[in-house]
């Protein structure tokens, strides 16, 4: 591969964005590019973008600026900016003006057609394709890179929920579910190539298949995926609390390889704010879902997303979010300051919260959650947990690292021959972010 062209793919944002970036890399591989992480020798640089918060956009704009300098050093390098940020209504023109050095602009609905865009650019043209909706058949997406232990598998695209703060429904379109047989086929083929753990991806996996007739829902899909031989673990994200069914909880409880981990974003603990966010549940309903999970799966790990400083959030509303964290006993929480996204309903709300207040609330929230997470992990000291061995630890190459079924990272003493398989690890210590243990 000495003379082959090289592609560097940079990715920002959620697992959907990562999965899209893998698809793009795979498309370029089929065109003769080999993946690399050295910008200086790249022939093509792809930046798959995120626009969920302003902070992500600022980082990406900084990176696009750096790529301008790269292009000054190497006129032949082609630059592609793809994904959510490009798909935002009205964004393309603004971005093109700001970054004339970019060769390819492609929105989220144009990724399947990336090879045609590259061909045009290789002939010396600049291209921009941002369709307003998805026209491609969902099933013709190339597979992600094979041979890895873990893979992300899309089961659905888009989102119909329109939470008032969120740009996702505006850039990823309406909800579409992939056919079960196509998903099962993709997973089997990943397993044949050595994959042992998959994460099923959707903005709201609990509404998977709602358009199918005869009825077939997410629990049915999980049950079928659980029958695939040699697949050791099945994860899924994200669960919307309003659609988390008893059937799903029971399916996970009874499953073989279905990991007992629910990512269940609460966003706020105040009913007033939840209503303004258009989340369609109350804190009481949410807590009843948490209780239901804990009843059927006592050791389940529950993680969440929380936004502070949503328009109109009073000190009292914020206190309710803090109280919620203590009641739900999250293993982990991803906490964010509200970021105004133009085109969303919340952006037009009047009582926006100042940056200072948002920062202060975020600090307090993170402090409470760090304590909760530590307590969660400390409970595991002395337990023997099943770990899928991923490889040497980055911080200590003499130790191995892997994850529990609850998705906790474990660093442990063990045999390097076990990489790629399941081992039982006795937990000895709970560090700030990881568990520390020894193979039994
Ligand atoms: N500001 C801050 N956080 C947001 N999220 C989505 N939109 C915004 C926004 N405008 C968060 C939510 C979601 C996670 C993926 O990102 O918590 O669950
Ligand atoms: Fe955004 Fe709400 Fe859809 Fe999640 S469910 S992607 S927060 S609109």
Automatic annotation (TrEMBL):
Cofactor: [4Fe-4S] cluster
GO molecular function list: 4 iron, 4 sulfur cluster binding; metal ion binding; tRNA-2-methylthio-N(6)-dimethylallyladenosine(37) synthase activity
Domain TRAM span(s) in chain numbering: 378-440
Keyword Repressor applies: no
UniProt keyword list: 4Fe-4S, Cytoplasm, Iron, Iron-sulfur, Metal-binding, S-adenosyl-L-methionine, Transferase, tRNA processing
Binding site for [4Fe-4S] cluster 2: 159, 163, 166
SMART domains, A to Z: Elp3
UniProt enzyme class: transferase
Domain Radical SAM core: 145-375
Cofactor: binding details: Binds 2 [4Fe-4S] clusters. One cluster is coordinated with 3 cysteines and an exchangeable S-adenosyl-L-methionine.
Catalyzed reaction equations: N(6)-dimethylallyladenosine(37) in tRNA + (sulfur carrier)-SH + AH2 + 2 S-adenosyl-L-methionine = 2-methylsulfanyl-N(6)-dimethylallyladenosine(37) in tRNA + (sulfur carrier)-H + 5'-deoxyadenosine + L-methionine + A + S-adenosyl-L-homocysteine + 2 H(+)
Domain MTTase N-terminal: 5-123
Subunit structure as annotated in this protein's UniProt entry: Monomer.
Name of protein: tRNA-2-methylthio-N(6)-dimethylallyladenosine synthase
Organism name: Desulfosporosinus fructosivorans
